[in-house]
Amino acid sequence: MPILPDTIFALSSAPGRAAVAVVRISGPRAKEALGRLAGHVPETRKATLRTIRHPSTGQDIDRAIILFFAGPSSFTGEDVAEILLHGGKAVVASVLNALGTLQCRLAEPGEFARRAFDNGKMDLTEAEGIADLIDAETEAQRVQAVAQAGGMLRRLYDAWRSDVLDAMALTEAAIDFSDEEDVAADAAARARDIIGGLVDALAKHLKDGRRGEILRDGFRVVLAGAPNVGKSSLLNALARRDAAIVSSEAGTTRDVIEVRLDLDGFPVIVSDTAGIRDGGGEIEREGIRRTLERGREADLVLWVRDATETADEVPRALLEAGAAIILVENKVDLVSGEERAGAESQELLRVSAASGAGLGALVTRIAMLARERIAPTESPVLTQARHREALEDCMKCLEDHLSQNQYDAELAAEDLRRASQALGRITGVVDAEEVLGRIFARFCIGK
After folding, report:
1. 201-227 per-position pLDDT tens digit
2. How far apart are the first and last CA of the chain?
3. The CATH fold of domain 126-208+382-441
4. What is the spatial distance between Cα 303 and Cα 316, in angstroms, rounded to a whole number?
5. CA distance 218 to 269
6. Are 250 and 275 in contact (CB under 8 A)?
7. Domain ranges for the chain
8. What ranges make up the beta strands (E) of 192-281?
9. Quick one: which H or E segment has residue 420?
10. CATH number for region 8-107
């Protein structure tokens, strides 16, 4: 007798007080559990209003909408039941307690999605897209996540893997007909043509400026400059709240402080950093080291200067890092119009964190740079570091294949097998338990 999987349940809506809460059940006993709670199981996919009662005491818990989805036509591929309750904590707790008495257990994080993957309802890229959709904070992140959850990356990588398998078949044919030179040479040449085109496509896909990864994680902006130029005040002005401590004492900011912003639908992470200067104590020097490190990792550096002081030069370490740099002259409300004379440019923006002057132009400029760097495109883009790593492995294997001469057909075939495995790791065709664990652990309980 095959061992049936556990029947799992969880609150699938956000915890806490709400108008409506959704409890999801999945597994071989889902239909039975729903019937015990509601006294009735509706037709599949038909919403029905029923009284939910505790199976042990018979006590009424709530009036709720119930739904049943017969497997395999469900999210997980198993029988699934959903109960839409009033969202009070006591109501939800009572229903979860009741399910625990019905040979069901509480689901682990991501277990519903893991079962959907195991039952062929989605691949790993689609699962990651769903996780990103749950985490999406801006419109651009939502658009990218919806495309990935809809299978955009899966279709691309499956097509590439199909090309590799076609080339593998031709290479194996070259080995099988090695005693017929014309047949073997023709098969090998056709395989190389397929792989040559695939290498070009992979190279273009990888050379994307990490657009998708930055959009997923956030466009990183670092505020840098000498002490007391108003970086913390500028951070607070951009965040529209007191995120950082502001003081006239030099060296107040010792560690990196971050705020997340939504600028025109794009995720932007602004970091306030320690002022850069010579001297200072050990703690301040560590803060300066972190400032330079963040600046080297940033997508954009705002080098903040004090309009009332002599301009500070941008450190060479930041200039050589390759990030875009905007010069921001702060405290312009403290200088006269004559002193501020001169046209502003993309490289220099004059602002006042205190009065708000110029902040609109600064925000517009940041949003424009973010849009240029990470705006979603119609073409599939890389969104995960693990995808990039697997594709780079695949590219190396394909290049090794092309470097083999016609007498090394066995080695060429092995290169293609390894390339196919690398692509398979992205979608989950090739099993990698540690990768699966990392992916589904990202989900909340109930998804």
Report:
1. 999 999 988 999 999 999 999 998 888
2. 29
3. Four Helix Bundle (Hemerythrin (Met), subunit A) (1.20.120)
4. 12
5. 6
6. yes
7. 8-107, 126-208+382-441, 215-374
8. 219-225, 257-263, 266-272
9. helix 409-427
10. 3.30.1360.120
Closest CA to 231 of 348, 370, 329: 329
8-107 and 215-374 in the same fold: no
Are 87 and 13 within 8 A, CB to CB?
yes
Contact criterion met (CB below 8 Å) for 76 and 66: no
Q: How far is CA 365 from the centre of its chain?
A: 25
How many other CB atoms are found less than 10 A from the CB of residue 386? Answer: 17
Q: Could you tell me if 401 and 419 are in contact, meaning their C-beta atoms sit under 8 angstroms apart?
A: yes
Q: Are 298 and 256 in contact (CB under 8 A)?
A: no
* CA–CA dist 152, 378 (Å, integer): 10
Please give the distance of CA 124 from its chain centroid, rounded to a whole number: 13
Residue whose token pair is 């309009």: 307
Task: For residues 364 and 69, give the distance between their C-alpha atoms in angstroms, rounded to a whole number.
Answer: 48
Q: Which residues of the chain fall below pLDDT 70?
A: 1-2, 177-183, 243-255, 277-285, 336-346, 405-407, 431-439
DSSP state of 98: H
**Cα distance between residue 74 and residue 291, in whole Å:** 50
Helix or strand run (H / E) with residue 55: none
Q: Helix H segments across 87-136?
A: 89-100, 111-118, 124-135
Q: Which CATH number fits domain 215-374: 3.40.50.620, 3.10.20.30, 3.40.50.300, 3.40.228.10?
A: 3.40.50.300
